């Protein structure tokens, strides 16, 4: 099975502007930002999407959420606020079959989205 785009970024086969990394997750700037701050945070171990997550993925998912909040604070979004979005499936705009959160901030984000 071939690697996902995000696995290639984690393996440094494709360059990225990395803002955070540990043994479990990687966070890097989106190449087509939808807000002044737009960072993708991905688990290094591929999980296809949120619907494909299993009970044994709970620790990874929890770690990813905590690190997303930490990255938001690191990028000075803690006071003004941020949005964390997980797309699941083609109608939601999921383009890469590897679970990832979009951390968005730096401007007022309208509701409803899309």
Characterization of the model:
The protein is α+β, with helices and mostly antiparallel strands and 114 residues long. The protein has one domain (5-105): HIT-like (HIT family, subunit A, 2-Layer Sandwich), CATH 3.30.428.10. 20% of the residues lie in helices and 22% in strands. The chain has two helices and five strands.
Biggest sheet, strands in spatial order? 1-2-3-5-4
Main beta sheet:
5 strands, antiparallel
Average pLDDT works out at 95
Count structural domains.
1
Could you name the CATH homologous superfamily? HIT-like
Distance between the termini: 33 Å
In the CATH hierarchy, what is the architecture at level 2? 2-Layer Sandwich
Helix content: 10-25%
CATH class: Alpha Beta
Quick take:
This protein has 114 residues and is α+β, with helices and mostly antiparallel strands. Helix content is 20%, strand content 22%.
């Amino acid at each position: 099975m071939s690697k996902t785009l995000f696995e290639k970024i984690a393996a440094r086969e494709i360059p990225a502007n990395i803002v955070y990394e540990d043994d479990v997750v990687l966070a890097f700037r989106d190449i087509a930002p939808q807000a002044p701050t737009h960072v993708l945070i991905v688990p290094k171990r591929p999980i296809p999407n949120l619907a494909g997550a299993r009970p044994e993925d709970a620790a990874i998912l929890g770690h990813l959420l905590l690190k997303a909040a930490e990255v938001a604070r690191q990028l000075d979004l803690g006071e003004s606020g941020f949005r964390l979005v997980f797309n699941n499936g083609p109608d939601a705009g999921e383009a890469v079959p590897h679970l990832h959160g979009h951390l968005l901030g730096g401007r007022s984000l309208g509701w409803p989205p899309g």
